[in-house]
Design a protein that fits this description.
The protein is built from twelve helices and no strands. It is an all-alpha fold.
Length: 446
């Protein structure tokens, strides 16, 4: 593992990011149960309320939950500064986010108007507090750090995505308003799935892949220019286009930008110096491959839209599964296989330095990161994930397989929840063991 340039002494308390990581699989489990309950009806239309509930359980409940936790972990290690606010603010952000996600998906399924208002208030509070907590770091003079540059762009993209989402949520909560929410749905999806997700994966990959897989470093110049070009292209599409599927020139430019990112990252992965087999790299390969398939599939439908008009619903649903389950969830689950053991290992190691007698125990309490999530567990996770992903895609065209896909999806996230909670229990067990030894008092006085 390459830890050069990391601030390993500036790591957050383990429960700050871990509370987000532990909560996220349960929303994905609810999404799988929703697929099992509704069966083929889940693929009736992307506008159906059950499909909207499924989408937001995965995007807000799983993706956003984990990405907020990841930022709480990554930013301090990368730039040497904790995100302001501390544990109390994090607990409020986390609780409000959970309430918002539960109320929003419940509102879609029950059409109880009050739940829309509760979702609007809770999500607005949670995401506003999180955004405000990032501002001091984003405004600090850290221009030379790539991750800060990328997070500044991500912050802008997130504000647009959240703004469009809350605007549409207001339309649901207040039907008497003149807000035509479907006018903004494709732009919300564009900024959320292509903007926020792709740029976040770009930012995370630029740190995770060289660190854990010992690849050549990402070019700072390339990533800065690419992220700016993607931001400008998304803005051009949103202004020029009446809906997501128009604006041929800007979509061509965006496609080329995404192809460049995918091919460039895959090329770096293939140049990794650590040649030992590591199954977790396959999650990132699957993620990038899904992005390339999205681009090819989109252009195929765009160029032959008349001949494929009867498949429009299946096309839209396929794009959604490829972007959410293939691109985003593959990278996120792969990332978790690395950063959760890293977080737990560092916290236990730092605790051991304060209780040095614990380091002489046989067998050693903190030996390596594979004690937290083993290679076999990651291998099982990848098999479950790719099988559920493929079954979900197939079930769009063969609806009789939807419940089988839902069962595979359920197993995928049950296993993830088991692995993460096992890691958390490992941390608690070893923390208690280390604290049984006396703390070393250091006197640096001259």
């Amino acid at each position: 593992m390459n830890t050069r340039g990391l601030s390993l002494n500036t790591i957050p308390p383990v429960l700050i990011p871990l509370r987000f990581f532990l909560a996220a699989p349960f929303f994905a489990i609810l999404a799988a149960l929703l697929v099992l309950y509704h069966g083929p009806q889940i693929w009736t239309s992307r506008w159906s309320f059950s499909t909207l509930a499924l989408t937001h359980l995965l995007t807000l409940g799983f993706m956003l939950m984990i990405m907020i936790g990841a930022l709480y972990q990554f930013i301090p290690v990368m730039i040497g500064r904790l995100i302001p606010g501390g544990s109390r603010l994090v607990a409020l952000i986390h609780a409000a986010l959970i309430i918002g996600i539960v109320s929003l998906t419940s509102a879609f399924l029950t059409q109880i108007n009050g739940l829309y208002w509760l979702a609007l208030a809770s999500l607005g509070l949670s995401l506003s507090l999180f955004s405000l907590s990032l501002l001091p770091l984003l405004m600090a003079k850290l221009n030379d750090h790539l991750i800060v540059f990328l997070i500044r762009i991500l912050f802008f993209v997130l504000l647009i995505t959240i703004g469009l989402g809350l605007l549409m949520l207001l339309a649901y909560a207040y039907p008497e308003s003149d807000i035509v929410f479907r006018l903004y749905t494709d732009r919300h999806a564009l900024w959320g799935l292509v903007g926020w997700v792709v740029l976040l994966i770009l930012a995370v990959s630029s740190q995770v892949i060289p660190m854990f897989f010992v690849t050549p470093e990402f070019s700072v110049r390339y990533l800065k220019l690419l992220s700016l070009f993607i931001l400008l292209t998304l803005s051009a599409i949103s202004v020029e286009a009446e809906w997501f599927l128009s604006g041929e020139l800007f979509h061509l430019i965006l496609s080329l930008e995404l192809v460049f990112f995918s091919v460039y990252t895959l090329r770096l992965i293939n140049q990794r110096k650590r040649k030992l087999a590591d199954v977790t790299i396959n999650f990132f390969r699957l993620s990038l491959l899904s992005l390339l398939i999205v681009i090819a599939y989109w252009w195929m439908f765009y160029l032959w839209s008349d001949a494929l008009a009867e498949m429009k619903n299946q096309f839209e649903l396929t794009l959604g599964v490829l972007l959410i389950y293939g691109l985003a969830l593959s990278a996120i689950i792969g990332m978790l296989q690395k950063i959760v053991p890293f977080l737990i290992y560092l916290n236990l190691q730092n605790l051991s330095f304060k209780h040095p007698q614990a380091m002489s125990v046989k067998p050693r309490l903190v030996l390596h990161m594979k004690q937290v999530i083993s290679t076999e567990q990651s291998q099982t996770q990848f098999i479950l994930h790719i099988n559920s992903f493929m079954l979900l895609i197939i079930s769009i065209y063969q609806p009789q397989l939807v419940r089988i896909a839902g069962l595979a999806m359920l197993l995928n996230f049950l296993w993830l929840a088991y692995v993460l909670f096992k890691g958390f229990l490992f941390f608690n067990k070893n923390k208690r063991a280390i604290l049984q030894f006396p703390e070393m008092k250091m006197d640096f006085g001259l």
